[in-house]
Amino acid sequence: MSTRADGPLTAREEQQLVEGMLTGNEDSVRALYARFARPIFTLGLRLLGSSEAAEELTQDVFLMAWRKAARFDASRGRLSTWLMTIAHNLAVDRLRRESGASRPRLVLVDELPEMIGTDEEDPLIERDVAVRALESLSDGERRLLTRAYFGGLTAREIAEADGIPLGTVKTRLRTALIKVRRANQDKERP
Amino acid sequence: MNCVLVRELLPEMAIGVLSDHDRTAVEQHLRWCAGCRKEASELGQAAATFAFALAPAPVPQGLADRVVARVRSASGAPGTRRRARTAAASVIAAMVAVAGLGWGAVQAGRADLFRDRAAEADQRRVTALEQFQKVLSGLPVRVSTDTAHLGQLAPVAGGIGGGAALIYSSPTVEDFAIVIVSGLSRVSPSALPLRVTLENPVGATLGAGRITSLDADGGGEVFHQFAGDIGSYATVVVRDAAGHVVLRGTVQRGATGP
Fold first, then answer.
1. What's the pLDDT score for residue B100?
2. Inter-residue contact A143 to A110 (CB < 8 Å)
3. Which residues of B190-202 are buried (b: 16+ CB within 10 A; e: fewer)?
4. Looking at the DSSP assignment, which residues form a beta bridge with residue B152?
5. Which 3 state secondary structure label does DSSP give B225?
6. Contact (CB<8Å) A58/B76
7. Closest-CA residue in chain A for B124?
8. pLDDT at A120
9. Which positions in chain B touch A51 (Cβ < 8 Å)?
10. What angle do CA B173, B176, B178 make, to 5 degrees?
11. Average pLDDT, integer, range A71-86
12. Residue A41 — pLDDT band, cuts 50, 70, 90?
């Protein structure tokens, strides 16, 4: 099948790509790779810390996506969300497994993610959406999400580190995520 | 776990830092609670957005070819020797979705006061079965829907769980049956293995394999090939180790429902 290389996919196009992948259609796999390999690899690099581990993660994500392809339903969520959730869960699971502890071994990450500029040449629409969504957050909210999402810290661990009530951390996490979600709603798929 | 507790945990689930124990409990709740499922979906989308905010790193050369090779190998696309086996795996993958939704429909049926839940589960089941038919038509090994008999498995009275079954009868390739079960997490390990049999209208019975273990969701599957024709066998029965019926169902040609 042929699919546009840029611009947001419609729900139907997303469903067709995933169904093509399920049957091993090379064009479908390459179309998915062209759109999502870079953010997946980048996420792996950030969470796992090495190019080798990020490459392995990228391969694992596409393999896991094939295994779960029959469960994907474009009417219930976006393909980008589905793939990045698989990527993040695999990366965090790997960290937990390797550390042998109940949480990822990552050091505390205090800095914000390396935010990209809106003049980025990459056509991937999700990046533009991400930047705009994160601009809706306060510095404190961005830092909190960074520590949890990229640092793998649980709400309890953040609460203990900062000396604030667990419930406060959970509420702030939820509030920050809802802000991001609301900012995204202006950029829903066509 | 109730909605209040689940919603408290959803942000951490979206961010991927929930413990395995809590994640399993939340996932079980989400199977039947549309409200919490919607919230989980929205928070998950928000968290995934965060991943895209990273400055993109250059991807190693040749990675695309390695990814394509792994997926093609796994999917059994033309050119690999595991074609037939992985075609069956694709069917299983599709049936897992059907079976899972079948279980959801059973749960919805038990909560029959909540009509919206039942209606939603029914719609999802229809969608999944349509998707399943599409998967069948796209398999690298041709599995004609004319000879693929599909149906759902339901628990006996007072029981739990559900499943799906495919009986494939063909004049050109070996007949096979695939049975997927799910939602049997309350089945005791001592009740394993589960034995799957096919029955025809005149009472003949064929063994179709055993499910020796269940995953955390109480799911499992069996794939069994037959030397002879199984086209007349339309009833699928799953029994526990003591011989008690756990699930039962009937397959139909081109079936779109139980």
1. 47
2. yes
3. ebbbbbbbbbeee
4. B164
5. strand
6. no
7. A73
8. 39
9. 60
10. 145
11. 82
12. very high
ipTM for the complex?
Answer: 0.77
Q: How far is residue B6's CA from residue B40's CA, in Å, rounded to a whole number?
A: 9
Q: What is the pLDDT of residue A58?
A: 95
Output B147 or A65, whichever has higher pLDDT.
Answer: A65
**Is the pLDDT score of A169 beyond 90?**
yes
Would an 8 Å CB–CB cutoff place A26 in contact with chain B?
Answer: yes
The span from the CA of A126 to the CA of B157, in Å, is 49
For residue range A42-54, what is the model confidence (pLDDT) as tens digits?
A: 999 988 888 999 9
CA distance B223 to chain A (A): 17
Residues 6+ apart with CB under 8 A from B247: B153, B154, B155, B156, B159, B161, B162, B163, B181, B236, B237, B238
B138: nearest CA in chain A?
A23
User: B134 to each of A20, A54, B91, B94, B154, how far by Cα in Å?
Assistant: 11, 33, 11, 10, 24
Contact B127 A66 (CB under 8 A): no
Least confident stretch, B94-108, B113-127, B190-204: B94-108
Whether B138 and chain A come into contact, CB under 8 Å, resolves to yes
Q: Are strands B162-168 and B252-253 parallel, antiparallel or unpaired?
A: unpaired
Q: Is the pLDDT of residue A118 over 70?
A: no
Written as one letter, the residue type at B102 is G
Between residues B63 and B49, the one the model is more confident about: B63
Distance in Å, alpha carbon of B248 to nearest chain A alpha carbon: 24
A19, A68, A134: residue with CB nearest B53: A134
Whether A168 has a pLDDT exceeding 90, the answer reads: yes
Alpha-helical regions (H) of A10-77? 11-22, 26-48, 51-68
**pLDDT score of B244 more than 80:** yes
Query: Which stretches within B113-236 are classed as H helix?
Result: 115-138
Report the half-sphere exposure of A57 (CA within 13 A, side-chain side): 33
Q: What value, to the nearest 5°, has the Cα angle with vertex A24 and ends A22 and A25?
A: 105
Element (H, E) at A111: none
In Å, the largest CA–CA distance within chain A is 55
* Residues A113, B50: C-beta atoms closer than 8 Å: yes
The two structure tokens encoding residue B17:
């830092």
A180 Cβ partners below 8 Å, 6+ apart? A133, A134, A136, A137, A145, B46, B47, B49, B50
Would you call B54 and A43 a contact, using CB atoms and an 8 Å cutoff?
yes
Residue B69 contacts A where some CB pair is shorter than 8 Å: no
